[in-house]
Automatic annotation (TrEMBL):
Transmembrane segments: none annotated. The keyword Disulfide bond does not apply. This is Anaerobic sulfite reductase subunit A. It comes from Lactonifactor longoviformis DSM 17459. Keywords: Iron, Iron-sulfur, Metal-binding. Pfam families: Fer4_22. PROSITE patterns: 4FE4S_FER_1 (PS00198), 4FE4S_FER_2 (PS51379). The keyword Iron applies. InterPro entries: 4Fe4S_Fe-S-bd, 4Fe4S_Fe_S_CS, Helical_ferredxn, Sulphite_reductase_A.
Length: 338
């Protein structure tokens, strides 16, 4: 059971939430698109409900709220180090079901994959997720095939229409804030995608020899190694470290954690001028098999949540969905040859 608020009351509620939280949602960034005179839809802080984009998929995921593109993890001088202070306000992030499922993937890597990551943990513990309904699928989504089209693990569910703003809280803290505002008690079903334009079936077992299958070679000449597919993906977690030294004191500076990509040159470089995956086809193979096979083999479920952003953002129009379909056909051919 939730509460339907009239717009004036809903605006007052948002003002109250902004006192405690930074509220992030997909919004339009004018003239910041990849092409000339185009807009970009990405996550940013909002000050009003009307800023939220409901009818289009965000070009980038919510990931950069929990994992900033460049994050200072410590400051250092000649004889001491200091960790940056924690932000006073918490985070409220509006996400669709597929992105909400990706939070579990991030938690698995940063909280359960060995020692807990201190910087991720303190942001994660201070973050609440509000589910945005998805009445219909976008063209490149495969959330139904990946089982991420539905979710119940949200702190609140939000829907906007001409009548006002509907909010259903499962989080106790958010529920207390909502109770201070008068609205109509009602219940609206969560809007979920039930069918995608494209369906795909991930093979449970990959055939022998898939590592050297000819399908990977065609990507060697097409992929330019820009890494955009990794950067828009809500489940990619790799980073590198950079030490920044100040000009006025070259013995003082800061250490930053910066996003990295398995598709770019230098990612697998090690001492001795050795690089494990120089060919872009090999890098594509690594990424795809990690998303739908290696990760599941270790954790029990796919890393990919089927948001389709990698499909949308590739400047060479490389289709991740087509790659998965080829993978399925290769697995079937292997079964038929047994």
């Amino acid at each position: 059971m939730g509460t339907l608020l009239q717009r004036e009351t809903a605006d007052a509620l948002l003002e109250r939430l902004l006192e405690t939280y930074r509220v992030y949602a997909p919004k339009v960034f004018p003239m910041e698109g990849c092409f000339s005179d185009t807009d970009s839809i990405r996550y940013g802080e909002i000050q009003g409900w009307d800023e939220i984009v409901w009818d289009k998929k965000s070009d980038y995921s919510f990931k950069e709220v929990l994992l900033p593109i460049s994050q200072t993890i410590l400051y250092f001088t000649e004889d001491e180090m200091k960790v940056p202070k924690e932000e006073e306000k918490g985070n409220l992030i509006l996400v669709r079901s597929c992105d909400l499922h990706s939070v579990r993937r991030l938690d698995e890597i940063y909280l359960k994959n060995g020692a807990e990551d201190y910087y991720y943990k303190r942001k994660r513990e201070n973050t609440r997720f509000i589910l945005m309904g998805c009445p219909e699928s976008f063209d490149s989504c495969i959330c139904v095939s990946m089982g991420t089209n539905k979710s119940t693990d949200y702190d609140a569910y939000l829907k906007m229409d001409k009548q006002g703003v509907y909010l259903e809280c499962q989080d106790e803290e958010l529920g207390k804030i909502l109770k201070a505002f008068q609205g109509k008690e009602t219940e609206l079903p969560v809007e979920y995608v039930t069918k995608n334009p494209v369906q795909t079936e991930i093979p449970e077992d990959l055939p022998e020899g898939i590592q050297n299958h000819a399908m990977w070679k065609e990507y060697a000449g097409r992929c330019i190694g820009c890494g955009r597919c990794n950067f828009v993906c809500p489940t990619c977690t790799c980073f590198t470290m950079q030490d920044i030294f100040y000009k006025d004191n070259d013995r003082a500076g800061e250490r930053r954690r910066v996003w990295a990509s398995c598709q770019v040159d230098g990612y697998t470089d090690i001492a001795g001028n050795i690089s494990f995956r120089q060919d872009q086809g090999q890098r594509m193979r690594f990424k795809v098999l990690h998303k739908v096979y290696d990760y599941k083999k270790r954790f029990g479920y796919h890393m990919c949540v089927g948001c389709g952003r990698c499909e949308d953002v590739c400047p060479e129009y490389i289709s991740y969905l087509a790659c998965l379909q080829k993978l399925g056909r290769a697995a079937k051919e292997g079964q038929d040859n047994e």
